[in-house]
## 1
Amino acid sequence: MKIDIVSVFPEYFEALNVGLFGKAIEHGLLDVKTHDLRDWTHDVHHSVDDTPVGGGAGMVMKPEVWAECLDDLLELEPVEIADTNDVADSSKQSESDDDSENPDLSEANPAKPILIFPNPSAPLFTQRDATELSRADHLLFGCGRYEGYDARIPRYYRAQGVDVREYSIGDYVLNGGEVAVSVMLEAITRLMPGFMGNPDSIVEESYTGQNALLEHYQYTKPAIWRGMGVPDVLTSGDHGNVNRFRRDEAIAHTDRLRPDLIAQLDCKSLDKADRKTLMSLGWEVSGSHPRKLND
Ligand code: ADE
């Protein structure tokens, strides 16, 4: 996979050379290039931002600098596009807080670069997005700073036929997109075939697959540590019972911490024992998804 990252702090990504990510670069699975956005500026101060149109605090990243950089990396010629940017248009944008602006990779040409901007006001980046993007051939990340980037940048490249994604990594605001890009990169690349030493460890993880549950608790040796034991069933050697125990623990754990994930399960995929466990926790398991009683 080819990965380009544009940032005003490209040195931030030197940390990528360690661990499994570093190994994947060494083995040629990943071809990572970082670019300094200021290389596309022309003024003595190398400025990449300006004050917000309409007033307000902070600075906004300029479209001209970003576009010169992205045109180069995407090998596109600059064009004028018919875009009114009227009030109706921008209200349409703010209404869509779902993933509707982020297309599915299956609809795109996987060989074309996908342009990704981290943005705290975008749809949430999920394991599903990571899985989908792990199949792409080329990702180009643009790290915003300050109060963000001019909203015309993603609109312009979408109008040019580029697959543009904007993702938030959580409901909090960071100083810039660098940390968010690192998070997304790690989530995406570890799903690539050949990245993990033991690919089985991915299969049972939390948030994996259509029937995502939080993972059951994990224990290692010693069986008794500072007076604390592990559940007997785990040392019984009965794999059927171990699997059932772990599944029930995952269900109970998810019910307690993330009931929203239970409510998204597909009832058809639940076995009899799953249903029994869910019902004992106060869920009605009929129809397409479980429903918490007395909610
Ligand atoms: N930039 C600043 N905060 C962010 C967030 N929560 N997610 C993605 N990008 C960001």
## 2
Amino acid sequence: MRILLSNDDGYQSPGLLILAQHLVQFGSVTIVAPDRDRSGASNSLTLTRPLRAHELGNGHYYVEGTPTDCVHLAITGLLDEEPDLVIAGINHGPNLGDDVLYSGTVAAATEGRFLGLPAMAISIASHEPKYLETAAQVTAKLVASLDAEALGSNLILNVNVPDVPFGQLAGMQATRLGHRHKAEPVTKAQDPRGRTIYWVGPAGAEADAGPGTDFHALRQGFVSVTPLQVDLTRHGLLEPLSEWLEACA
Ligand code: MN
């Protein structure tokens, strides 16, 4: 199996490096990751300047670009052979509910959706994780039993792992994305020249976070696994919208 490994925390992130160590048992692992922290980069592509890929001397690369740039570049020309699977992570910090819209980790996985096996975004539920090993072991378990036929193609799995010792996990749960309240306000400050600057504030509190959601599973000590799709169409609105448009005309 050929695995492409990326992330949004940058190529030196401990989460990425520990995951690479745990994945080599499945075949070849190639890291193509951003040169620095690009958390929150979402699915952005760099179109206004060229991309440079720097080889690290061991077949791995870092790229002056976004997570999506990395995976896009890797599978459309940088690598000699197309990988079977893209894994992004381990992200330091959870990606739950609305977070997936902003997440560079999820975006890196999304960019691998056309490959043969389900793409996976792996996050650990702490920004200063103590048990990265747990998330790496969980990922290895998922990869070991991946069944492309049962899960279908173009599938993305969003995996969130509690930051606890492996033996303390309650199990794995299939979940749907919950929702958050509106984000916290921006923080206003002044730069050294007296000009106003803003820091984007933290994500909103949990809103829709009951049983069945990713928030809930994680809070109960489970590994949350959410199947994602890229189709943003609101299918249920097609018919009423079409009627409304006819009335409009
Ligand atoms: Mn990140």
